[in-house]
Amino acid sequence: MPKTPESGVLRTDFAGGALRASIRDVDVTAELLAPCRPEELFVWVGDLNRYPDWLDMVPRAVRAEPHPDDPGPAWSVDLLGQLGPFARSKRLRMVRTVYEQDRSARFERMEHDGRDHSAWVLQAVIAPQEPGGEDASTLLTMSMHYGGALGGAVLEKLLSDEIEKSRPRLLERVAGSASAT
Questions:
Q1: What distance in Å separates the CA atoms of residue 168 and residue 108, rounded to the nearest whole number?
Q2: What SS3 state is found at 12?
């Protein structure tokens, strides 16, 4: 008996003589406690233009042409996944659907080409932990959801590795911008 997609194992079905395979959605959440004020951290996660500076899996993010159905600004974002010698890239049109200054930003894939596309959602939530001053600290919670066919354990491993590599770079950028002010 095949495992269900929720278990993270490939499920196969025979439908109309064809083999169909599906892998469960991917949901990854990571936290970072940063020694800074919320506004110093939010500037790096509330605008996709800043992501290539600290997140290798986003080598490019530029503003995209607005569409009347967009609830906020849009970006053209290149994603890059690499596993050993193998690399795969994907270009997405992401729209900021939630924006609460220094608190929360949510980006969702919104293509306007009339085709169905896999869901991509990225959310950054900022929560102050200690009051301002030299001892300020802020908790960043980043959540990513991917609802496509190439999910599963391999994508989760790539994302986990990328998260670990990005933590020190993000902290360096925050410290650099804080000392420049």
A1: 26
A2: strand
Model confidence over 101-121: pLDDT tens digits?
Answer: 999 999 999 999 999 999 999
- Which span out of 9-13, 30-34, 104-108, 112-116 was modeled with the highest average pLDDT? 104-108
User: Contact at 8 Å (CB) between 23 and 150?
Assistant: yes
Q: Which bin fits 16, alpha (ψ -120 to 50), beta or left (φ > 0)?
A: left
Domain locations in the chain as residue ranges: 24-180
What number is the average pLDDT over the span 6-13? 36
- 86-117 b/e with 16+ CB inside 10 Å = b? eeeeeebbbbbeeeeebbbbbbbbbeeeeeee
Nearest to 54 by CA among 178, 145, 167: 167
Q: Report the sign of the C-alpha dihedral through residues 32, 36, 39, 40, in that order.
A: negative
| Global model pTM greater than 0.70 | yes
Angle between helical axes of 153-180 and 38-45 (0-180°, round to 10): 130
Query: Domain 24-180: which CATH class?
Result: alpha beta
